[in-house]
Task: inverse folding
């Protein structure tokens, strides 16, 4: 039965409709695969009983002819989404034991459409990280290894559990979230497809907040089509999130095979950086060739403020995080460490509850928002954000339909290899993805090749606001043209 | 700009995170590494540029000023580390 887990989400959906197998069989196959894969540490908690109960409900709806678009499809949920009655931690000790009394809008949309939950996926603490090494619940190990090596590789972050679980065939797809690259970078590292939709496309209600003007929900899946299917269910207007946009959600799946003949693809010259790894440069050149072969026109464009995006991000994101994370005070939920008075209780609780990276970012955020520094840092960074957004608008106004870039500056690295001495070393992972968050645009990462030592590499496609459809079309062309990526060798079961 | 150790202690207090004396020099180094990384922004010409305050240009949505939820005190205090009779309990704050 284990081969059921190797299907794509679309094949599983179609097979269920044709009664080739049942939702309960799919649930069992995945529950079994998850039990065997604990060495990956992808799940913080597994919810097999819930998955089976939901599968039984799916069977009833299928029998009645009331199947939803995701009926019977087992998914993993990043532990950043509040799930009613199921512990939600955001990978932090400070939220350990927190059991929400409500369901996030995005997960509620998935259950409305018939999907079932296999468990809550590991992530960097409060989604702050690019390697899934900052989780209180331990690092996630990628199912991928370098050729000829047994060394543990990171799955990327912050959605490392989501990416690892999808790559290792533990679920057909997973929810993820992206503040500076947290969907696209782990997708690139694990040979999966991840899309960060336009800011406002998905409701943030019930997602644990990191940086509210940057955070956006999105899926990680094993094909472009699967990502399109998932995003359609996740997206939609929600009155409970004032930044969610009230426009219709297109049938993204219908856009997948639309083709790109006649599209104009922009290649931003500022992304061609000194010291860029040759294999990344080659991958990018290969992607450009595939675009031409599919009938698109290639145009070099300029996004002159690109190099300021990452530094500006490291002002805006920590500033918003320091404000959002002020709520963890040991009073209403989560950890409490007693103190001699209330301030002492707050300070001890937060010292014990937050890990090092989160503490660092809260402190940077507190500093840049503090009296005397607000204008010099925060307001200036927000002005630079306007400039970054304007760069993209100028490119799109000139007739560019989508922009092609590498997804990451390198393939996945080894556990413990980066960032221990200098936090900035880790931050540089998001160099190609963070501009998209700063401008609020959609971006998709799609597997396009492998590194010299056999690890997956991804390309990124950036589009106009609310034009995810073009991203799916372009990504599908890459997916079709790229050498077929075999599943990672199963060393964990 | 860089921070001295007194500033590190002040930020930690503002952020309500207890930091041991042992951690101060290390934190100072980390914060200064990040501040050095963002330093280049001070050279960007932002004259006349409006700060970005919303990602998508749209009017702030408003709803009717009516009660939409409530009467769920059990759910609200369910996760509180200490509660009593639907109140959150904290150390004494008034002498």
Result:
């Amino acid at each position: 039965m284990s081969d059921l887990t190797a299907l794509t989400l679309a094949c599983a959906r179609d097979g269920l409709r044709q009664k080739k197998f049942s939702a309960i069989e799919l649930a069992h196959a995945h529950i079994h695969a998850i039990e065997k894969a604990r060495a990956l540490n992808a799940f913080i908690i597994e919810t097999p009983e819930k998955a089976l109960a939901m599968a039984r409900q799916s069977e009833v709806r299928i029998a009645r002819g009331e199947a939803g678009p995701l009926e019977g499809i087992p998914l993993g949920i990043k532990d950043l989404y509040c799930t009613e009655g199921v512990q939600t931690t955001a990978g932090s000790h400070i939220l350990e034991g927190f059991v929400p009394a409500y369901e996030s809008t995005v997960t509620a949309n998935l259950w409305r459409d018939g999907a079932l939950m296999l468990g809550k996926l590991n992530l960097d603490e409060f989604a702050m990280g690019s390697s899934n090494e900052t989780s209180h619940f331990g690092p996630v190990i990628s199912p991928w290894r370098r050729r000829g090596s047994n060394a543990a590789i990171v799955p990327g972050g912050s959605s490392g559990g989501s990416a690892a679980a999808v790559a290792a065939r533990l679920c057909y797809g997973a929810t993820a979230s992206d503040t500076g690259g947290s969907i696209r970078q782990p997708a690139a590292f694990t040979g999966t497809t991840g899309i960060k939709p336009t800011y406002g496309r998905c409701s943030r209600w019930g997602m644990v907040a990191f940086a509210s003007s940057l955070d956006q929900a999105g899926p990680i899946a094993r094909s472009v089509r699967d990502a399109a299917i998932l995003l359609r269910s996740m997206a939609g207007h929600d009155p409970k999130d004032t930044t969610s946009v009230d426009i219709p959600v297109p049938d993204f799946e219908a856009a997948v095979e639309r083709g790109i003949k006649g599209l104009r693809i922009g290649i931003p010259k500022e992304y061609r950086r000194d010291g860029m790894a040759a294999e990344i440069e080659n991958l990018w050149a290969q992607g450009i060739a595939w675009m031409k072969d599919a009938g698109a026109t290639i145009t070099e464009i300029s996004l002159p403020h690109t190099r300021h995006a990452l530094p500006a991000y490291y002002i805006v994101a920590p500033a918003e995080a320091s404000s959002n994370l002020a709520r963890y005070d040991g009073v209403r939920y989560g950890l409490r460490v007693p103190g001699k008075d209330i301030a002492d209780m707050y300070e001890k609780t937060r010292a014990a509850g937050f890990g090092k990276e989160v503490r660092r970012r809260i402190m940077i955020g507190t500093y840049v928002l503090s009296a005397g520094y607000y204008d010099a840092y925060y307001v200036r960074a927000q002005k630079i954000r306007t400039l970054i957004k304007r760069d993209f608008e100028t490119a799109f106004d000139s007739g560019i339909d989508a922009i092609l870039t590498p997804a990451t500056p390198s393939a996945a690295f080894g556990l413990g290899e980066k960032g221990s001495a200098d936090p900035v070393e880790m931050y540089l992972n998001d160099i190609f993805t963070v501009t998209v968050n700063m401008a609020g645009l959609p971006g998709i990462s799609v597997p396009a090749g492998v590194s010299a030592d056999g690890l997956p590499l991804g390309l990124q496609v950036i589009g106009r606001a609310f034009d995810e459809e073009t991203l799916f079309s372009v990504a599908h062309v890459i997916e079709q043209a790229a050498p077929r990526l075999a599943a990672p060798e199963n060393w964990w079961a | 700009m860089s921070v001295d150790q007194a500033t590190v202690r002040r930020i930690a207090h503002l952020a309500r995170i207890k930091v041991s004396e042992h951690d101060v020099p290390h934190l100072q180094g980390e914060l200064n590494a990040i501040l050095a990384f963002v330093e280049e922004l001070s050279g960007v010409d932002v004259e006349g540029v409006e700060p970005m305050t919303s990602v998508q240009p749209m009017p702030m949505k408003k709803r009717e000023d009516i009660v939409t939820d409530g009467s769920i005190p059990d759910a609200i205090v369910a996760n509180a580390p200490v509660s009593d009779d639907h109140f959150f309990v904290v150390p004494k704050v008034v002498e």
